[in-house]
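re: ur question from earlier - yeah i can do the single chain one, its not a big deal. heres the input i used so u can compare w yours
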Amino acid sequence: MSNNSSKSVISYTDNKVGYIKLNSPSKLNAISLKMWENIGLIVNDFKNNSEIRCLVIRGEGDKAFSAGADISEFNKNRSKIEEVKKYENASKVSMNLLQKFPKPTVAVINGYCIGGGLATALSCDMRFASEKSTFAIPAAKLGLAYDYAGVKRLRDIVGPSNAKHIFYTARQFNTKEALQMGLIEKAFAEDVFEEQILKIINSIRDNAPLTIASTKMSIDAEVSDKEMYKKCLEAEKICFQSKDYEEGRLAFSEKRKPIFKGH
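and the output i got, formated as tokens:
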């Protein structure tokens, strides 16, 4: 295991999984400007680490993934247009890096997942939550303009009507509703939460990384993007020409678990 820790954001790698932990539990892991900047730096570092097969982001403690933006900074960082732009740029850059991360990304949600916290979770490929979790986007109660890309991403995940309901009412809703609308993939009881999350992460880590990378590229690509279509076809060829494909077939015939190496 290796780690790189700051006071507000902790990052480490463990058994080919990169972890980012929002570390401000006294503020329900509310995200400050400095935290946004650190998240972006960490995601870039993980991107350059060929050993990592999965990225996981979660909050410290058992009360919150993140309660959103750190409102104690609003007067300092979100009262003037220049300061708003600086804050918004930092958050957009970090979320964009998460969305474009070439390997699977997982948001582990245990508690409050509000505003910018939910936007961060939505930037990941998958979201898994404990049954006690709470979700909301309270922008309409604060008079904030929400990022265009963030609105569209929410719409793509939960559909237009659910997205409008979430934004227009600015209400809090529970894990059951989040699951019903497709905001999260699975929900787990508190007593088995960590165990089930680890099973999911391990299954992603142990599966063929070239197959997963090819699949993620195809799912995320726009149908009209011809250049990306060519890249997807090339990624498919790489899978079929890989040693991992040979290992997968051999392991199947030998009735054993395959050991994939990513080449």
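Residues 98 and 123 are 6 Å apart (CA to CA). not sure if urs matches, ping me
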